[in-house]
What does this fold into?
Amino acid sequence: MLRKLLPTAGPSRSLAVAQLTNAIGDGAYYVCSVLFFTRIVGLTATQVGLGLTVGWALGTFAAVPLGHLADRRGPRGVAVALAGATAVAVAAFASVRSFPAFLVVACIYTICQCGLVAARQALLAGVVDAAGRTKARAYMQSTANAGIAIGAVIGGVALQFDTEAAYVTAFVLDAATFLAAALVLRRLPHVPGVARAEKGEPALVVLRDRPYAVLTALNAVLMLYMPLLSVVLPLWVVGHTAAPRWMVSALMVINTVSVVLFQVSVANRVHDLTSAVRVVRLSGVFLLAACAVFAFSSGDQAAWVAAVVLAAGAVLQVAGEMMLASGYWEISFGLAVEGKQGQYQGFFGSGISVARMLGPLVLTALIIDGGVAGWLGLGALFLVAALAVGPAVSWARRNRAVPV
It folds into this structure.
């Protein structure tokens, strides 16, 4: 089945294989890490949350300079080095036995992860022609979801044993997958670095690109669907609906399987910036509809009725998610200045990091406390942000030469 999820032979296939490989390890890590740090190391949940928040905040700031480094030195070498450094950081988690040590390793891990994303995106832009980048990115997203699902099963085995050895094995697996991904990336064609900025020209051009900053901010708002799915919906299902608790897992399965099976097909609808804007607008409509459906899953309905409503909302949500991803991939690559994809992709990724950091707090207050009104407010926010993408793209196109 996985062969059908991979593109034909070439750079796109290698990038997808690398994504699949380290996603398997990440899936095991995501399932096991928090319990390892709390049950085995003895950290509190607050300490774990604080450490990861600080780490992702530093990673957000580091992504642009690391992306710029990929532009200057060549993205392949930087991506391989950061994948190796991430492997070392993951392995180091297994020896952590105090909060200060956890904080240091978490910061190294998140900085390397954020830099790796920027470098890998710059590498994609260097080895895949502009017309094929969105489809290549769709394959990477599809295989990432498949890999995380496989890794989650492996992590579930470690959880079942619930021993230090089992958790350490999961960390070792994650480290090994990053090393394997580095080997795959190393086989890609070399992409030469760009010359140093001329005197008087800013090195980090993206920091002065106001239209791109607006698009990144709008994407951060739309990316709130991520903590919505992973944090808010489980709390909503358990505390505000009559649906059985296993619906939390069912909603995740609907999302993961849908992305694996349909993300590439959705991406095939995007060919240029015009079609990208159109698809992003449509994603806002679907996300609004999903929020409206989720809002009315609470109340006195029978358990099966609540379950059906939640499933319908999940289908609408993942449809909007896949449209949003496809459109924004085209926008993020198409509006980046040539030769500076690393810093641009690093900056664009910072919006996603912000959504992950602030989303749980904001959405919990909005939806868990606000109920139906909170859901509808969030849906309206999604729609407004999606509709605002069109004018922002037009503004950006007026400020640069954009290839058709």
About this structure: The first helix runs from residue 11 to 41.
